[in-house]
Design a protein that fits this description.
The complex is a heterodimer of chains A (about 210) and B (about 180). By secondary structure, chain A is an alpha+beta fold. Helices cover about 25% and strands about 40% of the residues of chain A. Chain B is built from 4 helices and 9 strands, in the order βαβββαβαββββα. In chain B, strand 6 and strand 7 form a beta hairpin. The longest helix of chain B is centred in the C-terminal third of the chain and has 15 residues. Classes of the chains: A alpha+beta (about 210), B alpha+beta (about 180). Chain A: It comes from Ceratopteris richardii.
């Protein structure tokens, strides 16, 4: 599977993310010789354990997250951050979790936007929306199609991001593209990229946005 | 959902049954070796206690993990008329860190079993599986090499098929019809 980097828009001083900034970012992409593709979506969630008695000790996971990608609808991913664990399952695992009734959805993050193709690169630009209400961030994803080794693609992807930053700067946007280095090593994920790597990147990004002031 | 009928056979007659099944099925039997781990929710987790099974299929080169939830059987007058048990079942493939995952969520191992034997796949109205297995207890934690049959002289025969909500009558009849052919 090709390597993907998930990036985010870091506003300049006193700036905030908004739908307008996303529109400008998308215009900057469309100013290149891109082919616009379909919409994309990824849904992430954070859970809390359901306790029979709140007063009793509860030694259960408090950091359970999940993510589902519209591009990969047959799969569903769970992340346990403290345990550095990513679990991949068929998407009907949601039905099983529903029947077990042990963990409840605490909040939902939807990443959604448009995708583009530019030669050997697939690009995505979209917004991250918390609980269907507030935009908490703007995300950009770049996928380099020929390579599935994370280390071998690093330099080229870094150069691409710098070029992309130059293109966006010409559109007078106050801010920059930032890369949140994903903790693949601590999850014991290999150098060969996979959907599990993508799951870690997106849930890591959700955690990052939640830690920022809205 | 699933339609299922279960019975037992004396171990001395298993090979005879295998010959009958091969004749009826027309294809080769497949090995069954499943490590079944039953997990139950810890105290205070969930509004009501819950359980599920992690099944590790050891019959292939690479173990394959499935999480299985068995719900209640169909009840009522309609259910009593059914020739086979109809129950809610969900099976889902999952990565091989599932046991550690559910343990972290607060599930504890209640018991584990090893099922070894064979199965045949039929197609009568719908795909039907007939399996003949020895169910073994595992005296030491996860030590499947030391598994011993719970009932050495007897093996479990299961005839089962998946069904949706709208064709279970038909499927139950097909399962029952096949099971009757296997009865001594």
């Amino acid at each position: 599977m090709p390597v993907k980097w998930l990036l985010y828009w870091q506003p300049g001083s006193a700036g905030q993310v908004s739908g307008n900034i996303l529109q400008e970012v998308m215009k900057s992409i469309e100013s290149l010789n891109v082919t616009r593709g379909a919409r994309w979506e990824a849904k992430a969630a954070q859970y809390r354990p359901m306790l029979r008695d709140q007063n009793l000790p509860a030694d259960f996971a408090r950091d359970l997250q999940s993510i589902f990608f519209s591009e990969n609808p047959s799969k569903f991913f769970f992340i346990l951050r403290t345990e550095h664990m990513v679990v991949e399952a068929d998407s009907n695992v949601q039905d099983i979790m529903e029947r077990l009734q042990t963990y409840r959805n605490r909040l939902t993050f939807v990443f959604e936007g448009y995708q583009y193709q530019l030669g050997d690169f697939n690009l995505k630009a979209g917004r991250a929306v918390l609980n269907g209400e507030s935009i908490r961030g703007i995300v950009l994803e770049v996928e380099y199609l020929p390579v599935s080794s994370i280390e071998k693609s690093r330099t080229l992807l870094q150069e691409f991001v710098e070029l992309w930053q130059d293109v966006i700067s010409k559109h007078s946007l106050n801010g920059k593209i930032s890369h949140l280095e994903p903790p693949f090593g601590s999850y014991l994920l290999s150098d060969t990229y996979s959907w599990q790597h993508t799951a870690v990147q997106y849930t890591n990004m959700m955690t990052h946005f939640l830690s920022q002031r809205s | 959902m699933e339609c299922i009928m279960q019975g037992i056979i004396e171990t001395q007659h298993v090979e005879g049954l295998a010959v009958l099944l091969q004749g009826l099925c027309g294809s080769q039997r497949q090995a069954v070796k499943i490590h079944d781990l039953c997990l139950k929710s810890g105290p205070n987790l969930g509004q009501v206690p819950s359980e599920m099974h992690l099944m590790c299929d050891l019959s292939h080169q690479e173990p394959r993990w499935i999480v299985r939830h068995v719900g209640g059987a169909m009840r009522g007058a309609g259910a009593e008329q059914m020739p086979a048990l109809v129950r809610s079942v969900l099976n889902c493939r999952i990565s091989n860190n599932a046991l550690r995952f559910f343990h972290s969520l607060g599930y504890k191992l209640d018991h584990e079993l090893l099922q070894t034997g064979f199965k045949f796949q039929f197609h009568k109205v719908v795909p039907i599986t007939v399996s003949v297995t020895s169910v073994c207890k595992i005296p030491k934690l996860h030590m499947i090499e030391e598994a011993v049959p719970i009932t050495p002289g007897l093996q479990l025969v299961e005839v089962s098929a998946s069904t949706s909500g709208d064709n279970y009558t038909e499927v139950a009849a097909a399962v029952s019809g096949l099971a009757e052919q296997l009865a001594p």
